[in-house]
Automatic annotation (TrEMBL), chains A, B:
Species per Swiss-Prot/TrEMBL record: Hyphodiscus hymeniophilus
Catalytic activity: a 2,3-saturated acyl-CoA + O2 = a (2E)-enoyl-CoA + H2O2
Domain of life, per lineage: Eukaryota
Domain Acyl-coenzyme A oxidase N-terminal: 31-145
Protein name: acyl-CoA oxidase
One Gene Ontology term from the biological process aspect of the record: lipid homeostasis
Family the entry assigns: Belongs to the acyl-CoA oxidase family.
Pathway linked to the protein: Lipid metabolism; peroxisomal fatty acid beta-oxidation
Subcellular location: Peroxisome
Domain Acyl-CoA oxidase C-alpha1, chain residue ranges per copy: 298-463
InterPro entries named in the record: ACOX_C_alpha1, Acyl-CoA_ox_N, Acyl-CoA_Oxase/DH_mid-dom_sf, Acyl-CoA_oxidase, AcylCo_DH-like_C, AcylCoA_DH/ox_N_sf, AcylCoA_DH/oxidase_NM_dom_sf
Any one annotated GO CC term: peroxisome
Alphabetical UniProt keywords: FAD, Fatty acid metabolism, Flavoprotein, Lipid metabolism, Oxidoreductase, Peroxisome
Cofactor requirement: FAD
Amino acid sequence: MVDFTDSLLPGPGSDGAEILKRERGQSTIRVKELSKHLFSHNGFLERQQRVLSIIEAEPLCSKTNQMNLSRPDRFHLGLARAKLTKRLSDKHGWDLEDNKMAEYLIDEMLPYHLHPNLFLTTMREQGSEEQKAYWLPRIEKYEIIGAYAQVHKTELGHGSNVRGLELEAKWDPRASEFVLHSPTLTASKWWNGALGRTANHAIVVAQLLLPQEGSTTTYSSYGPHPFVVQVRDMKTHLPLPGIVVGDIGAKFGYACMDNGYMLFDHFRIPHSAFLSRYSKVDPSTGAFSQPENSTVVYGTMTFVRSNIAMHARLILARAVTVAVRYTSIRRQFRDRDVDQNIGQEIPVLDYPTVQIRILPLLATTFALHYGAKAMGELYFRTREQVNVGDFAALADLHSTSSGLKSLCTGLAADGIETCRRALGGHGYGGGSGLVQLSHDYLAKPTVEGDNWMITQQVAAYLIKKMASAVKLPDSAASDDTDANLKAFIKARENPRTTVEYLDILNDDYAIVLAFRTRAASLVRTSWHHLVMN
Amino acid sequence: MVDFTDSLLPGPGSDGAEILKRERGQSTIRVKELSKHLFSHNGFLERQQRVLSIIEAEPLCSKTNQMNLSRPDRFHLGLARAKLTKRLSDKHGWDLEDNKMAEYLIDEMLPYHLHPNLFLTTMREQGSEEQKAYWLPRIEKYEIIGAYAQVHKTELGHGSNVRGLELEAKWDPRASEFVLHSPTLTASKWWNGALGRTANHAIVVAQLLLPQEGSTTTYSSYGPHPFVVQVRDMKTHLPLPGIVVGDIGAKFGYACMDNGYMLFDHFRIPHSAFLSRYSKVDPSTGAFSQPENSTVVYGTMTFVRSNIAMHARLILARAVTVAVRYTSIRRQFRDRDVDQNIGQEIPVLDYPTVQIRILPLLATTFALHYGAKAMGELYFRTREQVNVGDFAALADLHSTSSGLKSLCTGLAADGIETCRRALGGHGYGGGSGLVQLSHDYLAKPTVEGDNWMITQQVAAYLIKKMASAVKLPDSAASDDTDANLKAFIKARENPRTTVEYLDILNDDYAIVLAFRTRAASLVRTSWHHLVMN
């Protein structure tokens, strides 16, 4: 529709592109070098440019109308984008990182998201060699589409405490099968991404029940274990008999993800469905065996938490970028001491009340970046050790990923909202680019281990570490945390060395050491209180 | 669809209704008396019961599917509900308070919301007697539907600073008409509720330009003024020639409100469009006259801010109610010191990490209630004084409503999110009842005067008051704020009286006095810093 507004321009001094160009011209920061410094890892920048040029040519990836769609249409758009990504991936020979980049650029969690991530990873990490040989090719070729009934938030009635899961997997020795059964409504699997409409297979966690020796009616519980289960017919896509499955409905965000629920009515699965890299059920005797180090079943969760912690910087960077650009362009009021009819109004970013909100978040983005880098290094180093049978550092990885997951998601989630409000009224509008970012990201503080709960686990872990460090301060440190606590204890015996060394005004590294000392000191204080009470 | 899940029950000890009944049975609070104490004002409880019985029988008011709808369908549902409310209002002879209750119970801001509120109020407060005689009957009968191009957040390029508005209203003495014109894109009216699709009339704020004496080409600006303007054809509902108007698109929330934009191309309106209760333009000479007390044009804004401040308690009460109920039912983990296989898990509300989040917000809800009550009393008392020509207390009302708007909306907006996260994963689900509450309410910290901006105005006002109180501490107090500041100054001269009086451990009223003293002390400190620098 053509009308007189087509020829209108922004008011004097309100041309955003012009203002940003001028602002950038005033900066001495070498932007290209900074980009390379931040994103050189793993060919990020080259990959982003290459995948972006393909993605942005696809009309399906246009965001223009997506906020106006109904929930079913929004899901269909997401599914179409997921399929498109798969086709583009085949066509251009994308690897896993390319695929992740595509999803990142399409800018939403697509219904296929969990398939190459959690579903594949869990199979790779928890499946036996035979299971991997059978399933991995099918998963990698997308012959099947998998959902992951994640350990946390997995049933309607139970979340963080996996021991409380109600779904039963009873071993039937005569048929050599497990029988999955949901005895109550609260046993419904809940939240499982891609299960609502997309997936035909799922990894399902259930309480393992084995007959007591010599009995066919009395069972003992062996805790939660993962099973791989076909959920829907491969031709009709209808749920298999004995399974009730569907979409859990509207959520705070994630409009195109079909989070699902599922219940089983005495549904039989073969012995081979039990993921048995670590724990095993002997098919002939029904005897249970488990690995010496039981923390390995947390492998997937640690992977997810590490990823969430590493992802936070990208989210906060976007929110801060929007806020800095907008508040540079937006002007409001003139200086109180000048003639109110002369000259331009002041850019909002020049007001201290805006600066004290936005600039610390800009700094936080960089802190999250380097935190993510350290998290990634710790994760891959520990994985390598685990792969050669050394589980010593796993507890520390678990604690670090939990602590960082909580810290980073809290900072990013609250940071988005701070940025959004700093945009004033326009932060509430769809044009801000912060609406979906906020609605989607606000899942993070409670998902995959509620932030308040996992920080308590971290605290318990640290206090335990401190107790043992106090007992044997001179024993070899098992990991970075241990080393820091022990160094602190030894420094306390001669406090002057510590205090004099930390010249934080002139030595950046001294700031790091100061934070280390502070962290150890807080742990010691908490431990001391507990011991005294 | 019938399946085996129909006969399933919640797991043992997980029946929500039963748990809540038991919990309530343990309380000694007399709930009915408390309800009466909180909500006896203006027949609230009787009204709620009466209107609810009508609303809940209407299928259009069912929320079952509304989160799944597309934006256009969501708007149509809202419009249908607005029309239904009007029909029910006519049928049952509802008064204004009944209508407000209906909208509150339908639980969203309907497209007609601004019509009986801001549109009507502005006409009543800013219209001349002739204008009111002409327009009010038409507004009250819904013969026309009005939008309000509110003073704040009114143009794409300008918000809080109304002086920066770009829309021009030029007086044409020969035609005796005003010419509305948007010279730039940034002059677009923006955000105006109900303007996107619903309204055929609007109150529009524009810069008043009058020809300089003896000239027909040079104009002087007389600042922003409100005009009543027909926007769309009464039969075809198409925009009138010279007007471009439409919906601004998706937002963070308010899915069924058609916030709009509007531009004018030399659009002519009659002299009678100028709302002229206070300011006037002489139609024969083009001479401008304005009232002695110019703060009266803030009347509508003060009304809106007071209402927002008074509304916050109801919002936070809902979020806290959801959180308290859910965390009473939800159980997670057994006590660490008992056998992990015996007995029930602990209700989440019994954990200190949940209590420290939820219980202070429960208390805050009551604080907001009494704050709202005081705000309402101040508002109506001051309105009565203004109606008899006494403007003395208006500045204090403006400051109080601004300060409370900022405080109450901040507490409620952040409180919703705290409650939502305390629900863990289920807080993110549509079943929590907090999704739309959050998405809608998060407009409040920035709308109708950004919280950060208006608190600075409050600070400036208080410092000015302190300066004059220091100068003349014994002069008669003009309002409560003034009285408190002066009392503080006088008490400082004899500090012992103050300190001894405040026995906050044994005397509840002493807490109020302590807060008063603290408030005055903070103002004095700020004033002192300014004077010293």
